[in-house]
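Retry 2 of 3 after timeout on previous attempt. Resubmitting structure tokens to design endpoint.
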């Protein structure tokens, strides 16, 4: 058996554990700029036999140390404002009446810089959307034997919302609202594109009713259900985007002008729909509706994608935090971090958080973190001691970070875990060959058992790097225009309760220094900070 490293040597310089009076780290400069959390104080020293590790998931609690005695245990059930770049289109020639009609009061200072480019791309998006819906309506009417002329189509476009729309549509919205929530705040671009894909699939099914009218009912039901799912995703994302634009807390003004943009596009779309339908009627080819719809919908999706690419979110999601942390650990001294516009342009809109390096999973269970089984008690105690001052336990295996969150963790703990994962990813990928940590790079790929033991030296080196580099990372983010006080990261439901079971009055060690989070509770919202769980 490989001996466990001495865990009291927490830093690269070999400093031993400090006295109780010196253990609490001082507040960083983040405390003066919106991040008000203090670091977790180390627990009182206690013999290993008195350590208590309980995994909590909802109402279920699991004693990990007792479970670890069983072999091959299976898995249990005030932020800185974004920098304003020079990319705003010239508006000097725009008449004042048009400015008042389309733009919020105080433009451009009252909105984010990406507001106008997004709206300019959204107008043709809405136009093609109405064209697409008009062709779908024509196909549905033709499928049930109704004349599909332009006048009839426009007159009956409202009545086509029928049969199962209300029931099936409500079911789709219910599914979205009950299963998804934090995801929309974390990655609105991605989920808006998912919504667009679902809506396109739904309309495609409805258009297909004109080709196979004998299957009208199942196709219409399935199409309406897909569109309801897309609408259920699109509406929350739309609210997120509106709130993002309202940099002066003027959500009402932004929403009012959004209606103006949409109505103008709707009128243009209706006029274009009549013209296209007249042209299709003149050809006498009913199949032309299907091909015309496919072409127009393809243009519509491309325009939607371009509109979403104009957005530049200054808040930190899992993907953006991972990309920033990766840039931070690899950047030469004096090089700034990527700015808001630059990083948003590089962010892959269709990728999930796990597809961006460093790969991080937040809020996993202990068994999942260690590769499918709860490790032996000695490994659990060693990891618990190594992370005694953090709000999480990070296990590095398979080139990814699997993060077990402790009860009472805060948003800063999420960012620290991501930064530590970026450092580990950089070192295990060949970064910093002259560092002492490069000698143990190969030890970070195991899961439970001996692999977890072998990874401990590398993890201790990463914790030492975290102590020295995290505050500079936050400062670099602020200087680049990022709002480090607003974090939107989806975390799993599993939590770890760390305590000392040395008597009938066990002392829970899950409390943080005074920061608004009670011991044993979840993250709270403090001073505009959004710490989110699922």
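Retry 2 succeeded. Sequence:
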């Amino acid at each position: 058996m490989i001996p466990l490293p001495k865990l009291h040597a927490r830093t690269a310089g070999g400093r031993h554990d400090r006295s109780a009076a010196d253990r609490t780290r001082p507040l960083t400069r983040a405390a003066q700029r919106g991040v008000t959390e203090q670091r977790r104080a180390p627990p009182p020293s206690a013999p290993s036999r008195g350590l208590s590790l309980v995994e909590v998931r909802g109402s279920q609690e699991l004693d990990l140390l007792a479970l670890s005695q069983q072999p091959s245990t299976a898995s249990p059930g005030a932020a800185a404002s974004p920098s304003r770049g020079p990319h705003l289109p010239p508006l000097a020639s725009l008449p004042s009446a048009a400015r008042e009609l389309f733009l919020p009061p105080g433009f451009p200072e009252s909105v984010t810089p990406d507001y106008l480019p997004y709206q300019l791309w959204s107008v043709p998006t809405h136009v093609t959307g109405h064209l697409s819906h008009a062709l779908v309506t024509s196909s549905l009417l033709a499928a049930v034997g109704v004349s599909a002329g332009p006048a009839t189509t426009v007159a009956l476009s409202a009545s086509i919302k029928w049969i199962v729309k209300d029931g099936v549509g409500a079911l789709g919205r219910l599914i979205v609202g009950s299963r998804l929530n934090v995801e929309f705040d974390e990655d609105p671009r991605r989920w808006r594109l998912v919504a667009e894909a679902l809506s396109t699939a739904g309309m495609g099914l409805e258009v297909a009713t004109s080709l196979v009218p004998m299957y009208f009912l199942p196709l219409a039901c399935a199409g309406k259900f897909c569109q309801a799912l897309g609408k259920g995703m699109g509406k929350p994302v739309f609210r997120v985007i509106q709130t993002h634009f309202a940099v002066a807390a003027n959500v009402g003004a932004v929403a009012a002008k959004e209606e103006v943009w949409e109505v103008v596009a709707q009128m243009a779309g209706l006029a274009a729909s009549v013209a296209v339908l007249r042209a299709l009627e003149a050809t006498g080819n009913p199949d032309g509706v299907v091909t015309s719809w496919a072409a127009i919908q393809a243009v519509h999706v491309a325009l939607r994608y371009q509109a979403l690419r104009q957005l530049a979110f200054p808040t930190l999601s899992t993907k953006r935090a991972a990309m920033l942390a990766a840039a931070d650990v690899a950047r030469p001294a004096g090089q700034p971090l990527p700015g808001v516009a630059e990083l948003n342009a590089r962010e892959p809109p269709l990728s999930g958080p796990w597809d961006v390096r460093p790969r991080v999973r937040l809020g996993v269970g202990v068994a999942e973190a260690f590769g499918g089984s709860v490790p032996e008690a000695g490994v659990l105690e060693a990891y618990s001691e190594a992370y005694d001052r953090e709000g999480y336990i990070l296990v590095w295996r398979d080139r990814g970070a699997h993060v077990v969150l402790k009860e009472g963790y805060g948003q800063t703990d999420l960012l620290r875990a991501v930064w530590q994962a970026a450092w580990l990813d950089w070192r295990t990928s060949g970064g910093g060959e002259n560092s002492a940590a490069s000698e143990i790079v190969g030890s970070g790929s195991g899961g439970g058992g001996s692999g977890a033991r072998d990874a401990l030296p590398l993890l201790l080196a990463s914790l030492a790097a975290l102590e020295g580099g995290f505050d500079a990372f936050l400062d670099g983010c602020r200087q680049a225009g990022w709002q480090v006080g607003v974090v939107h990261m989806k975390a799993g439901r599993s939590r770890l309760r760390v305590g000392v079971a040395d008597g009938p009055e066990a002392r829970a060690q899950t409390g943080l220094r005074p920061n608004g989070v009670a011991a044993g509770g979840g993250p709270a919202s403090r001073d505009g900070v959004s710490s989110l769980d699922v």
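Attempt log closed. Residues 54 and 523 are 18 Å apart (CA to CA).
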